[in-house]
């Protein structure tokens, strides 16, 4: 069943989100503070049974100098390739060295970043929410930008960012914070249009926020969230972007995806999967992104 507005209404929907006046200066200063710390990229070769790909265990200094980890997979013996930086879903992790081989097999350098502290956990939506400077996603989004810096330091000039759900929301944030990305693929992006999401979604993870508001008798979380809303980042983004949405998604309301899509400042396309849920087209949508990225990055490099 549909979980939100009908398709005609979704195309007309516009978010009521209002970006704070100091949104840009807050993020400019946050990234400047992070970049004042040496990136200190390390890439250690990993012995795997894979015959066509090389794998490296990468780490670099993220927010506050904390070590952030990622897998880098590349076609065997190749370097300086266009890169795809991928962020994972809520409570997930980077998996094993021999998982998720699609992008490297397609000819890209593929950096799969692990979101700090999230292996199998929850409760991150409210962590540090009392103040924008302490909010959990300030660190996460900064780490994500530093991941782009890291893959460039390893030799990739052209970089795209991708993700599903939380990963899609992180990719949107990076698109708004890094001005010269080559492309963006955001499947069912989480962390967008918070007020709308909390009004219409009754499932986790958004219910972490509604429960926090109810338990603490406070609704003053929105000033903090306004600095981390994907709609705000979308309005700053200029790289070509491919969005996708499943109209039966009961985790990320489709209207919140459209809210970010309509605010996106760069060239954009939306794949609507009427009978998909949170997978937002899944492998069929991945085919669209692979074809687009092949034309955009590989053929032009």
UniProtKB/TrEMBL annotation:
Q: For binding substrate, which residues are annotated in this chain's numbering?
A: 90
Q: Which GO terms describe its molecular function?
A: carboxylic ester hydrolase activity
Q: Which Gene3D superfamilies match?
A: alpha/beta hydrolase
Please cite one Gene Ontology biological process associated with this protein: polysaccharide metabolic process
The active site of this protein is located at: 165 (nucleophile), 249 (charge relay system), 278 (charge relay system)
Alphabetized InterPro entries for the sequence: AB_hydrolase_fold, AXE1_dom, CE7
Classify the source by domain of life: Bacteria
According to the entry, every stretch annotated as the Acetyl xylan esterase domain falls at 2-283
* Protein name, UniProt field: Cephalosporin-C deacetylase
């Amino acid at each position: 069943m549909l979980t939100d507005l009908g398709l005609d209404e979704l195309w007309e929907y516009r978010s009521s989100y209002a970006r704070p006046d100091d949104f840009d200066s807050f993020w400019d200063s946050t990234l400047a503070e992070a970049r004042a710390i040496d990136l200190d990229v390390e890439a250690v070769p990993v012995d795997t049974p894979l015959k066509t790909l090389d794998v490296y265990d990468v780490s670099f200094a993220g927010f506050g100098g904390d070590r952030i980890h990622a897998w880098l997979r590349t076609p065997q013996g190749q370097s300086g390739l266009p890169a795809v930086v991928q962020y994972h879903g809520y409570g997930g992790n980077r998996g094993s060295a021999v998982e998720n081989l699609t992008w490297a097999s397609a000819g890209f350098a593929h950096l799969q970043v692990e979101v700090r502290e999230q292996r199998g956990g929850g409760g991150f939506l409210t962590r540090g929410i009392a103040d924008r400077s302490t909010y959990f996603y300030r660190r996460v989004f900064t780490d994500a930008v530093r991941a782009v810096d890291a893959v460039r330091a390893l030799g990739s000039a052209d970089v795209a960012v991708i993700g599903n759900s939380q990963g899609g929301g992180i990719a949107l944030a990076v698109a708004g914070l890094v001005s010269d990305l080559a492309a963006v693929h955001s499947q069912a992006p989480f962390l967008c249009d918070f007020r709308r999401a909390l009004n219409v979604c009754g499932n986790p993870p958004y219910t972490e926020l509604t429960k926090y508001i109810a338990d603490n008798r406070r609704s003053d979380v929105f000033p903090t969230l306004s600095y981390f809303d994907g709609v705000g980042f979308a309005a700053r983004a200029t790289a070509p972007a491919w969005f996708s949405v499943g109209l039966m998604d009961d985790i990320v309301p489709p209207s919140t995806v459209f809210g970010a899509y309509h605010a996106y400042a760069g060239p954009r396309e939306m794949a609507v999967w009427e009978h998909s849920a949170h997978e937002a087209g899944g492998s069929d949508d991945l085919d669209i992104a692979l074809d687009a990225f092949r034309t955009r990055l590989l053929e032009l490099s």
